Amino acid sequence: MKHARNAAPGIIGVAQNVFASLGPTGKAIAAGVVLVVGASPFGAWNAVADDAIPLTAGQVVEAGPYEVAVEKVVAARTLGDVTALDEKNKLLIVVVEVKNVSDTPGIPATLGDVVPAPAGAGIVDVDGRPVPDDVPPGERPTPRIFNIDDSASIDVINPDLSYRLALVWDRTGAGDPAEADVRLAGLTWIEEGFSGLMSQYWLATDEVTHSGSFAVEPPKEPGA
Between β-strands 199-217 and 66-76, what pairing exists: parallel, antiparallel or unpaired? Predict the structure, then answer.
């Protein structure tokens, strides 16, 4: 089976997998370790992003089973029939080119792990609450993912095929952002889970690998 060329487990990814398999005592010990890590400078998303590889439009990045290239970031009221979850909000859309370079179908959720909600763009969660820019990747809202051409949702990313997709988040309806910080996070391949209940899957590491500031295209539709 082909896997990504950057499939070495990250610290956070391994910790997540271990933690899920621990009993109550083990989890209590692990929690103490998490507190120490969280107190370090690397516990903040912004600190990690400062060390990330610069990301530019069209740059191909290998992440798990995917090759991902961020094309652009767009502010909009709608994407075809797709609207904000709350009518008072608007959309932030990250347009990406994605190719599954593995031999196994991928699920959109793993792509959502690779492209966390951008910072600096007024993103809100499903309850309409603003998401602070320093919230780490694993705690940021996941996108809704659509084919850019017909706004249809997708449920699989097939091997050896390229897709042009829209990753969509709700954002505050007050004004339009001029720039957004797009950050990519890693995935690690788990051949056999520590718990023995799952095997052969991609796990989000929540570690920022690439980061770049993108100009946000303003809305084109009237009244947006």
Answer: parallel
Q: Is residue 75 part of a domain?
A: yes
- Distance, CA of 208 to CA of 87 (rounded, Å): 32
- In a domain? residue 38: yes
How many domains is the chain built from?
Answer: 1
Residue 97 in domain? yes
Q: Interhelix angle for 24-39 vs 11-21, to 10°?
A: 160
- Whether 224 maps to a domain, the answer reads no
Q: What is the pLDDT of residues 84-135, one digit of tens each?
A: 999 999 999 999 999 999 999 999 999 999 999 999 999 999 999 999 999 9
Domain holding 70, by residue range, is 11-217
